[in-house]
Each structure stands twice: as structure tokens, then as C-alpha cells.
Amino acid sequence: MSDQRAPQLQAIGKFYPLVLCCFIGSGLAALIYEIVWFQLLEFVIGSTAASIAVLLGTFMGGMCLGSLAFARIVPAALHPLRVYAAMELGIGLSAVAVLYLLSPAADLYASIGAGGSAGILFRAVLCVAFLLAPTMLMGATLPCAARWVESTPRGVSWTGILYTGNLAGAVFGCLLAGFYLLRLYDMATATFVAVAINALCAALAVLLATVAAHQPPAASNAADRAPLRFEALTAYVAIALSGLTALGAQVVWTRLLSLLLGTSVYAFSIILAVFLLGLGLGSSAGSLLARSARNSLALLGWCQFFLLAAIAWAAFSIDGWLPYWPVDPLLDLSPWMTFQLDLARCLWAILPAACLWGASFPLALAAAASRHRDSGRTVGAVYAANTLGAIVGAVTFSMILIPALGSLWAQRILLAGAAMAAVLILLAELRPGIAAAGRRRAMAAVLGAVVAVPVAAAALAYGLPPVPGELFAFGRKMMISYYDSKMLYAGEGLNASVAVSETKDGERLFHVSGKTEASTHPSDMRLQRMLGHLPGLLHPNPRSVLIVGFGAGVTAGTFVTYPQIERIVICEIEPLIPRVVSGYFTRQNYDVLKDPRTEIVYDDARSFLLTSKEKFDIVTSDPIHPWVKGAAALYTRDYFELVKRHLKPGGVVTQWVPLYETTVEAVKSEIATFFAVFPNGTVWMNDREDGGDVVLFGQVDPEPVDVDAVAARFDRDGRAAKSLHDVGFVSAVDLLSTYGGNAADLAAWLKGAAINTDRDLRLQYLAGMGLNVNIQDQIHSELIDARRIPAGLFVGSAETLAELRKAIESNEAPSDARMPWCPTVPTACSPPRPAR
């Protein structure tokens, strides 16, 4: 047999580096696909915790099935490298299919999709249809390569190194996609880059298969599958627990670290890259240990034992140390300097634990290796156990443990999981020597360790620090001195962490995931009321309203003041916000939740609009800042077109755009994208008392603004008028004086702006670069300089128009020239622009 294997063993040693290069490329492509697919499918099925759990479960479930099915479906006689090449080509073809079948899937979801459990079931079916084929092929690649190497400790070590190379490629793919491909190009470009990498890997594998010998294992018989040893069973269970704790920790720590770093796409890319880097480094070390170790199972147990300290280290770092580092993220406006600091903090906190989880996989392979002669079957089974545990960990921690118990208890459960795996292996080590009198002392030591491990885990769990409420509220800015607030509430919901704080002056702030989302500060109150009252007054007779995002409920509450409105629908992704946060702002939101006209839909806004047939007179959207991961999906052309389809004839829409913590390019992208769908849209400025926001206004059927009619509605709706008086607007003319330009005026300023689409979600990358930038005065000045009033935009009596002209000109008009006034007669319009 050794003579038959000699050519293959020589080929393995000679060509192994090239096969390793294939696996590096495979991992690189896989991470690009994962990021693109998750982003694409979230547009269709939504981004709620349930949708993400379904998406993640399908992705990892497909890999689990692929690893299990490979050895049972693919004959061992086939050359593994040729099979690997075919799988790489299959992954690339599947990726192209996913890219181009998204639009039909969105249409199908819109026609069939539903809410509740039926909706979740349909989302699962949709994810399976998209992801099952490519993820099964991804899961089968490692068992396939394992058939090419030896079923010996050296062969197991080589397989572990292939796994390490795959993770190394994944690290690079994560950073390449997050910091380059999707920042500068679109999802199609990223996909085809990954497809090209798959094709290169496939070509290299085919070339190697022509020169590298392969001796298939002997024909299978009953001896090929020895009875499952207790030690091997222990390895399977331990690696499943390792996968559970690894993905559970990734869920918990990503959620907490994103608060500390800022929830931008760049922060998520850094966190994921560090986690993958740790897995890769650990896998490399574990592979080397497995090659020479006499007892791989014992080493696997030591990994689980040391994980107790590593998990505790990460918990203490993230919850008790890093938030209190004297770091002011605004000291350096360069995002690249901030990224380096973010990388250092992630390495400090999570790298040790990630290394130990990475080392566990090759050690589990070595512990279970003697069960099968077909190494592909062994690798597939271990990989499947690890992946299955990861699925349970990701879903359980994100959907159940964090919302029900909080991050502190979730991290305590991580310690319990690692302790359970360590104790299980200790018991497996104890079992063979129970009857040997000469090993009594060793057995006593093992029994002592069985008791000591849970005690150590309990002691560490008891000492873990709680997550500071200020981290939920202020995130990366919690150590900046001007935040001197008292925490009123902090909690962790299903989709986000929320908090309410109060300043010494009595102003209340509402926070989502470390970002202030609303407050009772005058400028914020004015913005929130403008988002409701502008469409409420400019629409001649609104009857139904959709509010995207509850926030503090102030915008939704403005519609309570309009008696003619019959239906107020609020779409909110986080159930904790209306249920708990609303009560802290009842005076400002007019207790909108108790109004009989109000209905709350707990769903992603896009998913709701895709599956709902209802149309509205008004749709107003106040999403979180565009640099927050996922928020840019509510600023795409596709989203605005979806909103437009859900407007009744004469319907209107408003959208918030921030001018702070952003760049000129990002603001231009947001406004240009809105105007691409609403070409007669207008901009309204919230620029009093240092307000740094604008409100975009669009109409299905563009009509001029009848100032006299708006004033009459203002006077007629007494509660609405009082609501505006409370935030400083003394009349309808005062509200309309916030006009800041329209699409025609701003066309030259917006020239070349990136249009944000579902396929090219450029905005979140543009906005993420402005995280520390505060140039709202510059952006405001540029908008004011470009502002005009085209003929026919405002109509009404001469006295009213003169009053409005005076009010607009007094609102920070350029100092070197008056803004040209275009009356209702087009021929009298003065076209020149003011000098810059």
C-alpha cells in the first residue's frame, strides 16, 4: 500500500503550496460573496433580527450540508482537485445567478410576501433558493481537498493549514470588499472580481490535477467505518460547542464593539477581519500541534480551558476597560487614523479568544481522524459539527439571549459553554484509565480539574463588569467631556441597543446603538416637527400617513394634531423603542401611541413596503445617520421609487438629510438620489440655533405651493399651529421661509454626484468617511449660494409673496448678493446667480 501511495505522497509535498494558494483565493472570494449577498438579500427580506438570523442560518446551514454531503455523494475515485475545480466554477456561476436574479426575487417577494410567521417562512424559502447551492459548494471544498492528502497526523496538519489559508484569504477578502471594492465600485464589480478569482483557482486546480498523482482509497467495506469511539464523539461535541461559543461571541462582541467604534461599515469590516485573523493564526498553530501531538483531544481540551480566560479578557476589555480609554475620536479628522485605532482596540480585545477557537478546529480533526479511511468524510463531519454549533450560537445569542438577558449574561453563558466543552474532554480523558490502579493519582487530578473548571468559570462569570449605559447612549463619544448626562434608561433590544439620557438643563436625548437619534433640544424638535408639518400643511387634504422609524415619536405625533388624518402607520424595526422609549417623550409626541388612529408595524421599512398594497397620502422618513451600517438602504433610488409607488395621487414624501458628521460628497449623493426619483423636489433648511439638517420634499404630482392656502390650513388646524409655535415657527410664512432650493437650482452643484442604488450602495461608504467631519457650515453655505426661487414655485397674493420673499432673504442670504426673486410671471424671473 505504501508503494502505491508513494507517487501521491511526493505529489502532495511538491504541489501542496499551490493547492494552498487555491484555498487562499477561495476564502478571499467567499468573503466578498458573503458581504455582497448579505447586502443584496437584506434589500429583499429586510434587515430585522429575524431576517438576519434566517439569512445567516441559511448561509451556514448550506455550508454544513455541503461538508456532510460531499463524501456521501462524490465518489472517492474522482480526482479531488478536478472536483474542487468544478466546485469553484459552480460557486462563481451561482454568484452571477444571485446577482441577476435579485430583481425578480424582489418582485416575487412583493407579490407573495406576508408578515408574521408566514413572512419569516417565506424569507427562509427565498434565502434557501438563493444561497443553498453556492454555500453547499463552499462547505464541500475543504472535505474535497482532505481527500488529496494523507489520513495521518501529517495529513491532518496539512488539512488544517489549508483551513488556515482559507481564513487568511477571508481576512483579505473582508478588507478588500469593505474598504475598496464596495467603496469605489458597485456590487456587480465586486461579484465579478470574486468570480475571476474562482476561475483562476479552478484553472490552477485543473492544471495541478494533470500532473499530481492521486491514488483513491481502497474500496469501502465494513472496516472503513469503525464504530464511533467515545473520544471521537467527544471531539465532535466539543468542536460543536466551540463553534457555538465562537459565533455567539462574535454576535455579542460585534454588537458591543460597534458601539465603541461607531456602527459604520468600516467598523464591522475591521471587527470581522480581526476575528478571522485570530481564527487563521490559531488554526495555523493548531495544525502544527496536531502534527506531532500524541493526544490531540487533550490539547483540544486545553484550548477550551484557556478560552475561559480569553472570553473573560474580552469581556473585561470591551465592557470595563476600552470604553474608559481617554480617546477623543474627533481629534483627528482623517478616517484612516481612526481605523488604525479601531484595529488596535479590536486586536487587544478579541484576538486571544479568536486564536483559541481557530486552534480548536485542526485539533478536533486530529482527534476524530481515525474513524474513517476516507479523510474527506472525517473532515466533512468535523466541519459540519463546528458549523452546526455556529448556527445555533449565532441564532440563539442574537434572537434570544441578548434581547432577553442582555450582553452581560450572554457573555456569562459563553463562559459556561467553554467550561462545558473542557469538562466533557476531561471526562473523556478519565474514562480509559478508571480501572487502572496505577493511574489513581492522575485520575484524581483529572477529577479535581472537572470540579475546578466550572468553579473557575463561575468565578469569572461573577466578576464580569456590566456594559456601561453611557456606551449604549454615546458610543464612541462617551469619554468626551461635554456629555454630562444622567442615564434614565438603557436596554438591549432585538435589533438595537437603546438608551434615554437627560442633561443638567433638562433636555432629554434618545439614543440608538451609541448614536443620538432624537432629543428635546430646540433644533432637534424643530427638525422632527418639520418632517411632519411640512407634508401635513403642503398636502391639501391628507388622510393617511406612513412614518418610517419611530424615534422619540415626535414626528409621528405631529400628525395627531391634524383632525382630518384618519390613519397613522408607524414602521419600526426595534420593538423596544415604542414600548419603552416613547414614554419618556409623551409631552413632545402627544402620546401618539395611544391615539386610536395609530398602528405600529414592527418590520423593516423596505420589507413592509414590498409586501404591503396600501397607499398613503404622506410618507415621511427619519432614519438614523447614513454612516450607520444599513441606514443607507433608506436613501437609495430603489427605495424612493418604492415609496413613490405607495403614494396616492397628490401624495407627498419628506426625507431627513444631515449636514453634520458627513462629507460634501455624501450630502450631494443623498440629495441627487432623491431628485432622481422626484425631479421637482425641494430642500428645506433646519438652520436656526445651529441646526445642521435639511428636509427633502417630493410630490407624485408636482403642484405649486399656494402660500395663502397653506396659511389658511395653518390657521384652521389650531393644534398644528400650536405645535409649530412651540418650536419657533410663528406662522405659515415663517415655516415656508426655510426653503433652501429645488432640483433645478441645485443641478450644477449636484453635477457628478453618486446616485445611491441597491446595486451600488456607495452612500454608506461615502458617509462613513465623514464620521469625524463637521463641516455643516460649509455645506449649508454652498446650498444657500445655489438657492433660487423658480417661477411658479410659490403662488398667492402679492402681499403674502412679498412677506415670504423678505423672510427667505433674511434667512442667511449670501452677503454679496441678494437671492434673485422669481414671481409667478415667468418672464419677470431674474436668472443670474449670486457671486461666490
How would you describe the overall organization of this protein?
This protein is an alpha/beta fold and 836 residues long. The protein has 28 helices and 14 strands. The strands form 3 sheets. It has an 8-stranded mixed beta sheet, sandwiched between helices. A hairpin with a 6-residue loop joins strand 10 and strand 11 (693-699). Helix 1 (2-45) packs antiparallel against helix 4, helix 7 (230-261) runs antiparallel to helix 10 and helix 8 packs parallel to helix 10 (335-368). The chain is elongated and about 100 Å long. The N and C termini lie far apart (85 Å).
Major beta-sheet overview? 8 strands, mixed
Count, helices: 28
Distance between the first and last residues' Cα: 85 Å
Radius of gyration: 30 Å
